[in-house]
Structure formats: structure tokens, C-alpha cells
């Protein structure tokens, strides 16, 4: 029975990026509603979906600052994404040494940390992704979150208001099992600036996208603040370089375990232990 990996500060700096479903408050202000004001949640959902196309590929280099029990840890992150779900994260030290790597083609994943004697492999199910990125997400959802386009949860009830403080539509979606998602989207483009994921009334993920800029026709955030209840995580990513729609081959997401490491499969919940 494989032993599940535990989070380390190094991995937190490198792989908490995505995460991806939540955003914190914008500066306090009073923004009058637009005219005409959308009142049907379906309109704003369609607006968000329309803005969520995004680039087919995304490559970013970012400064990462992680605030945790061990203090402040700074590093660099390189993330490469090919939608729908191929992702490669490389956490780098301030001197550009590799700290940890995780790569997935959307189906299988491989992950290891520098100097560790074990390398993890398995299906990239949400539970396994959640071992390395502390939000259990499908890889296609994670890919969308990296470009400032967090996916909407499967839901039933929908409510819509205008948030005068944020200056955006506030959409609330009620999922199953006590899950609630709040998403703030700008008028008129549907740019998501804030979102929160709550379970049983408690915020579990809280993420802010800021400093949006147009890159080759795509409006993308260049600062991401992530707060996660799990592990009391507080992470800031500042994108230093952003490239979109680059041709990326399968090899960019193929990762071999380092020679001499012990390969440990991690089963998904629907798989029998190896």
C-alpha cells in the first residue's frame, strides 16, 4: 500500500498555483451598477463562459512567495499548460535550481522533489492531483484556473447580485454536499476577478486575480493570490513572463522518474492498491 506524499514548504511554493477556484476581496469602494444591469444568472454564466475560452497553451514564469508556519519562503515557478489538461509545474529556488516537478498529460502524472528517494506516478484523478496541489481538481479545471478562468462547479440553485464594493456581478452557485461557489465577474466582458469555494459555510479556497493585461489578444492576470484553509496556505504568484498559444508537443508533459528513485504508484479511489 503506497504511502501518500505530504506537503512540504517547497512543494507549496511550486505547486499551489492553481488552485484554483477562489478569489479574495478587492479594495473597498462603491461602484454603481451598470445600465442595463443583468438580472438573470444565466446571462452572467454565459458571459463568464464566453470569456473563459482563453489561450490554447500558456507558459508562465512567476515569482512565488509562500507565507506559512515556517515563515516566508520565496522562489520561482515555471508552469506550462496545454489545454484541455496537460500541465507541467517546475518549482525553482531563487537561484533557479529545480525544487520539485509535477507533469501530467491530462491522464497520467509523475511528480518528484529534488533529492527525494521516491517518485510518484499514477492517474491524474482529482484526488491524486490534490496530493500535490492542495485543491483536488480535474486537470482541465486546473489548466483553466492558471489563466484566470476558474471553472464553474456543477450546481443547482443560482443567485445573482451586483456587488457595489467590488464593482462586479456576484454569482452564487449551490453544488452538492454543502458546496457553494461564489464568483465575481466584471461587466461587460465577464472577466473573473474573484471567486470563493465554500463547504458547509466555511471558505476552503480563496484566490484573487489582479493586474490583468492583454497578451496576444488574451486578457490574463499577472498576479494571483491564493489562500487555502488546508495547511493555512497563503501564496502570492506574480507572473514575470507570459506566453500564449505556443506550439507544445507531448514531450513537454512527459516526465521520467530520476534514476535511482523508488517509483511509487498512487491509486485513485476507484482503483485497487498495487
Query: Helix segment count?
Result: 4
What is the CATH third-level topology name? outer membrane lipoprotein receptor (LolB), chain A
Query: Biggest sheet, open or closed, and with what strands and sense?
Result: 14 strands, mixed
What topology, given as strand order, has the largest sheet?
7-8-9-10-11-14-15-1-2-3-4-5-6-16
Order of helices and strands: HHEEEEEEHHEEEEEEEEEE
Structural class: mainly beta
Percent range for β-strand residues: 35-45%
Give your account of this protein's structure.
It is built from four helices and 16 strands. With 274 residues, the protein is mainly beta. It has one domain: outer membrane lipoprotein receptor (LolB), chain A. The strands form two sheets. A 14-stranded mixed beta sheet has the order 7-8-9-10-11-14-15-1-2-3-4-5-6-16. Strands 12-13 form a two-stranded antiparallel sheet. Strand 2 (71-82) and strand 3 form a beta hairpin. Residues 6-10 and 12-27 have low confidence and may be disordered.
Chain-wise SSE layout:
Blueprint: H1 9-15, H2 41-51, E1 57-68, E2 71-82, E3 86-92, E4 98-104, E5 108-113, E6 118-123, H3 126-132, H4 139-146, E7 158-163, E8 168-174, E9 179-185, E10 192-199, E11 202-210, E12 213-215, E13 218-220, E14 223-228, E15 233-244, E16 262-265
Parallel strand pairs: 6-16
Antiparallel strand pairs: 1-2, 1-15, 2-3, 3-4, 4-5, 5-6, 7-8, 8-9, 9-10, 10-11, 11-14, 12-13, 14-15
Features:
274 residues, mainly beta, outer membrane lipoprotein receptor (LolB), chain A, 14-stranded mixed β-sheet, two-stranded antiparallel ribbon, 42% strand
Amino acid at each position: 500500500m503506497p504511502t501518500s506524499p505530504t506537503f512540504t514548504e517547497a512543494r507549496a511554493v511550486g505547486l499551489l498555483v492553481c488552485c484554483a477556484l477562489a478569489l479574495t476581496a478587492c479594495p473597498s469602494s462603491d461602484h454603481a451598477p451598470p445600465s442595463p444591469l443583468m438580472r438573470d444568472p444565466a446571462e452572467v454564466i454565459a458571459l463568464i463562459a464566453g470569456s473563459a475560452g482563453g489561450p490554447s497553451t500558456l507558459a508562465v514564469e512567476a515569482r512565488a512567495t509562500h507565507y506559512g508556519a515556517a515563515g516566508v519562503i520565496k522562489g520561482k515557478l515555471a508552469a506550462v499548460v496545454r489545454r484541455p489538461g496537460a500541465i507541467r509545474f517546475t518549482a525553482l529556488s531563487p537561484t533557479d535550481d529545480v525544487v520539485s516537478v509535477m507533469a501530467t498529460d491530462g491522464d497520467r502524472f509523475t511528480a518528484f522533489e529534488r533529492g527525494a528517494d521516491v517518485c510518484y506516478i499514477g492517474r491524474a484523478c482529482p484526488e491524486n492531483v490534490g496530493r500535490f496541489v492542495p485543491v483536488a481538481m480535474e486537470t482541465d479545471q486546473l489548466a483553466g484556473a492558471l489563466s484566470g478562468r476558474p471553472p464553474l462547479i456543477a450546481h443547482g440553485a443560482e443567485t445573482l447580485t451586483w456587488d457595489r464594493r467590488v464593482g462586479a456581478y456576484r454569482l452564487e452557485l449551490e453544488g452538492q454536499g454543502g458546496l457553494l461557489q461564489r464568483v465575481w465577474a466584471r461587466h461587460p466582458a465577464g472577466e473573473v476577478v474573484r471567486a470563493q469555494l465554500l463547504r458547509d459555510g466555511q471558505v476552503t479556497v480563496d484566490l484573487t486575480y489582479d493586474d490583468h493585461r492583454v497578451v496576444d489578444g488574451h486578457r490574463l492576470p499577472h498576479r494571483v493570490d491564493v489562500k487555502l484553509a488546508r495547511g493555512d496556505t497563503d501564496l502570492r504568484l506574480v507572473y514575470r513572463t507570459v506566453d500564449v498559444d505556443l506550439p507544445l508537443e507531448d514531450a513537454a508533459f512527459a516526465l521520467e522518474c530520476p534514476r535511482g528513485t523508488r517509483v511509487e504508484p498512487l491509486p485513485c479511489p476507484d482503483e485497487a492498491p498495487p
